[in-house]
Amino acid sequence: MSETNPTKAKEGELFKRFSVQFRVQHVLLFLSTLTLIVTGVPLWCMARPGHAWSHSVVSFFGDVETFRQIHRAGAAVLILVSLYHLYYTMFTKEGRREFIALLPREKDVIDVTVNSLYFLGLSRKRPEFGRYTYYEKFDYWAVYWGCVIMIGTGVALWFPEITAKYVPWLTYSLSAEVHGDEAILATLALLIWHFYNVHFNPSRFPGTWLWWHGDMSGKEMMRDHPLEYYKRVLAGIRSKRQESDTAV
Amino acid sequence: MHSGHVLMLSMYWKDVGTLRTAIFAGVWLLAVLVWPAAAKTASDTMLSRGDGSRTPAVHKIPLYTDVLTADKREKITVESDPALPFSMRGTCSECHILEHSYDVISKGWHFNATDANVPAGRPGQPWIYVDAATGTQIPLSYRAWPGTFKPDQVGMSPFKFTEHFGRHMPGGGPGEVDTKVFEEIQRQAVAGKLEINCLSCHDKDPAHDQAEWAAQIERQNFRWAAAASGGFAFVTGSAGKMDDSFDFTMPDTVTDAELIPQVPKVTYRPTAFDQKGNVFFNITNVVPAERCYFCHSDINVTTCGTRQWQADQDVHMTSGMTCVDCHREGLEHNTIRGYEGEQNSNVLAARTTCRGCHLGNGGAPPEGGRLGAPVPRHKGIPAVHFEKLTCTACHAGPWPVQETARCKTSQAHALGTHNVNKAPEVLPHIFYPVFAKQSPAATSGDGSPASRPKIGPHKLIWPAYWGTLTEDKVQPVDLATVAKDVGAALKDAKVPRTGDWAPLKSEQIAQALKALGESVKGKAVYIAGGVLYELDDQGKLAGRKGHPAAAPYMWPIGHNVRPAAQSLGVDQCDVCHSKQAPFFFGKVSADSPVQDGGVAGMRMADLYKADGPVNVRVNLFFRWLIIIVMTLLILHILGDLYRRGLVWLGGKFGSARQAGDGSKGKP
Fold first, then answer.
1. What is the value of pTM for the model shown?
2. What does the pLDDT read at residue A1?
3. CB neighbours of residue B287 within 10 Å
4. How many CB contacts within 8 angstroms connect chain A with chain B?
């Protein structure tokens, strides 16, 4: 019986990395986020000196109310997908497994340290990552934190009367300040950090279709998530053994 | 008759007598209670309400003096010699006699300031006494408006007050108060009383000249001022130049050749009298706005200089309304001031506010939309704005900018009078628009959330005056003492021709305080620009900011109203909700004659305890968070690129193979 060598990826080998559930959530998330950025930036800039262009952009597409409505439509999608994600992580087996895999661990701290040393030339080897690298976990938790902040303050801005009644300390101006500031951080992190990791990174440029089909090649997995690769391959060998043992 | 029967009868009559007495007393009491109401109803029917005709009554009437001859007022004719000034009380009371109309009118808002029983209401514009030479700019008012001083507190009698500020009063009030200052009794007899001048407001004659009224008051011609302002008389001379024995009914008794040309004299246009000896008064009960403007104009001297044509009008005026459409009054002249918490006997008062006309109260018939007032939808504006802001916050006054502008007003700067100082720098310095919380007096005060003071635009002055400090309370020193003691100490200070502050140095203030301290009880202090100056134990000048006595005085802006399309926040929340927004962070200017003493600088938010500073801290937190996070992320990207570059170079030139990626590592 010939066995697969787990340290070498086979040509044409494919692994399902993200399920349909995961991919649909991601698509809705990035569509709503991009809508929110595109409409939010001109709204934020409109009353600031030196941003006359934002008035032109808004008037080109209609008026400020139209922009606001599109922004709120995007926000509604983000809220829905966030609520669904909560359900997904709490009430589905897959969701719980993914959530647990995304929790920060001691190894992540070691990985950050080793990777930093590697960047500085003080280590010859990159750390070997599992299903999620520490920077992917950072992405996830940044979005998590961002959604809580943005949705919280956004709803306060959307329904100020109700907010004033039930959460009087969260004033309109405070919400607007936090909403705007957090939006800047999220937009910068998305456009610089996340886009680098999935688009501009030389090994992935100009991008990967992973978000669409959910499949990752064995080579890619071996390179970026070797521990996950070994786990999957060994699990495959084990199941094959079990199948042959049963046949015998 | 049986004695018992007699006794019973006498008792019976006694009871009947008691009963009759009781009935008589009851009827008498009822009559006493009902009579005034019945009389009032009758007078309302006959006088206040008119006969219902909208055609104004034509006033072709005889002129009367206030001189009584055999209990009758003396009539003025074209032949009268000497011609005496006509009296408003005498002339108008001939017909407006019911309920003593003149006395009723004299209790109206424009004339009742000296009546301590009249509720002061929302703080309004004070009279500002200015003396650039002594660095004085002090708000005065007979009304109990916190932050103002009663004229008596600075040693200003009603007569002096009239002499100083009567130029922009329609007469009455302090102008008719009998002076209690012994030295002024004769002087008041010479000058006369400043009667209510009905023409100040009701004259539609284009020849009416209120500036001439002001000029007459400057010459102490109180008695002649009304005649001079009308279009059918001409007044020369000056009562102020006459000695205390002058009798205006006998002007020919003045024999001093130098004084004869100065004898006050009125000349009536002969053609003004018709064949019956009546004079036509072009009177209207719909007061033209031009009459109001004389006392109620203002101009932004920061943006417009003194060029009125560069300023926009109130949107109500451009839509064809006039002042009295909102500021209504009946015979009693209880002018509706037009704010929400106003206590006014006028039944229309509660409905003649911004809210009253534009929103109504949902009753039937609907009040919102009166006079064509558009009913705003305020779509998209959170309701919290209407709880926290007055209508004027967004709709009235100049558009707020980073630092408050300066303005001049008729009452403060004698606008519209002859030889007025037109320089933009002239004192007093009034700043606007300043967003601050309303005075509680501007609200209904019923404790409901809607009655809480709201934020609205105000005009502001920083009081500058000399006073005495006792138990940390400041009382102003009378103006005569200030002029004598402080004036002498500051004799070297030069007052600019513009009428601006005379620049003063700390040493000069210290010197003046020392001089003043010798003639007043208590510790002499000077207040200017929000700073209280006093001499410390070593005799050195010390300044204290934040003392209540140095706080600015503010009064609300009700005009000029801007239309919806020019209101604050139209299409842009960030006009107010941003870090640069003048509404929160605009600088409230302060100025002072003391060049090296500093001023109490503040921002708008300081005046209503807004949450601006909290937001600044939040912004600071996020700013550093963004800087730190993005720096780390970018360093990570650069590190990754650097190592990938090395690997790429190694692969290209066959070296550094070991610097490769994780795929070459062991599982």
1. 0.66
2. 37
3. 18
4. 119
